[in-house]
Amino acid sequence: MTDPKDFPQPVSGTVTPRFGDVATFMRLPLFRDPAEVEIGMVGVPWDGGTTNRPGARHGPRQMRDLSTMMRRVHHVTGVAPYELAKCGDLGDAPVNPASLDDSLERIEKHFARIHAAGTVPLSAGGDHLVTLPIMRAIAGAGSRNRPLGMVHFDAHSDTWDTYFGGYKYTHGTPFRRAVEEGLLDPKRVVQIGIRGSLYKRDDNQWAVDQGMRVITIEEYFDLGVDKVIAEARRVVGSGPTYVSFDVDGLDPAFAPGTGTPEIGGYTPHEAQRMLRGLRGLDMVGGDVVEVSPPFDMSGNTALVGVTMMWEILCLLAESVAKRKKRTP
User: Is residue 102 part of a domain?
Assistant: First the structure.
């Protein structure tokens, strides 16, 4: 029987200064074989699907640096993820900054290897198109026979069809493609925080027509955090669920370093409360995307982003422990 005391542990800031040693996610050991861990944190340094401000390719590196602020035990829930599951940094997915199509193929193959090892991925983007090849690896042919549900935090639905005269692959289209490919069950998808001006009145109608639960920012504030949590849990149910967190779902006062900022979003604390409210769901993966360091040299956006990764990590660790019948 595996002893949690033997699980990889982060370097303590009381032993080695936060600014010392090589930067890894949460200061965990770096692994190259995904079979050595149960939850693998992966950088996807690619923003070839960006249609506005670039720079998210630099997100994983700065998020690793700012992840030195994360410690070992969740201060509210008491969850200690490194006692529940073997966690580690799996490095970065291979990408090709000169080719979108090649990058999508490389990312999918990389995550397929992770999935085949039985490892749950927690990823740092990169723009939001990187979620599509990750989902192809988790829910595509040869993987689980059941499409995923998703809790999606974002200012944008990312279900538009095409850009620039028929081009189908951008950071504004991943979830339309995922539904079309049978990777996502739209009736088990909830999108939280959707807002911003539109090109056409029906820009977000496709998502609604497919059965996605779209919670605009106006409805979010009308309902409040607790009712939004309850609605998210109702929508995704007990099936396998993915969490995708775009930092532009937050108000840009807290996360200015992103490609398509929209004012009027929720606060980091509200986002943390919503993520904590997902405890107990069947979590099979997650990501935090669209952190663009060149637009926030303070590093605050990366700090916010990696803190959301920490919240998701705690959810994933509990899910892994539950599947393995492991108790804290």
Answer: yes
Which DSSP state fits 4? Answer: G
Could you identify the residue written with the tokens 């595996």? 2
Number of domains in the chain: 1
Please report whether residue 210 resides in a domain: yes
User: pLDDT for 116-157, tens place per residue?
Assistant: 999 999 999 999 999 999 999 999 754 455 799 999 999 999
Q: Examine residue 28 and state whether it is found in any structural domain, yes or no.
A: no
Question: In Å, how far are 44, 48, 58 from 126, measured between CA atoms?
Answer: 5, 9, 7
Q: Which residues pair with 276 in a beta bridge?
A: none
Find, among 249, 236, 233, the residue nearest to 289 by Cα: 249
Q: Is position 149 within any domain? A: yes
Are 212 and 189 in contact by the 8 Å Cβ rule? The answer is: yes
Q: Using CA atoms, how far apart are residues 175 and 134, in angstroms rounded to an integer?
A: 12
> What is the Cα–Cα distance from 168 to 80, expressed in whole angstroms?
41
Rounded CA separation 4/327 (Å): 10
Average pLDDT over residues 268-292: 98
Residue 262 · residue 157 · CB < 8 Å: no
3-state DSSP call for residue 53?
A: coil
CATH number of the domain bearing residue 96: 3.40.800.10
The HSE-up count of residue 213 (CA atoms within 13 Å, CB side) is 22
pLDDT in tens, 182-216: 999 999 999 999 999 999 999 999 999 999 999 99
Q: What are phi and psi of 22, to 5 degrees?
A: -75, 135
Decide: 291 and 301 in contact? Cβ < 8 Å.
Answer: yes
Let me know if 69 is exposed, middle or buried by CB neighbors in 10 A (0-12, 13-18, 19+).
Answer: middle
Residue 176 structural domain: 37-323
Beta bridge partners of 192: 153, 215
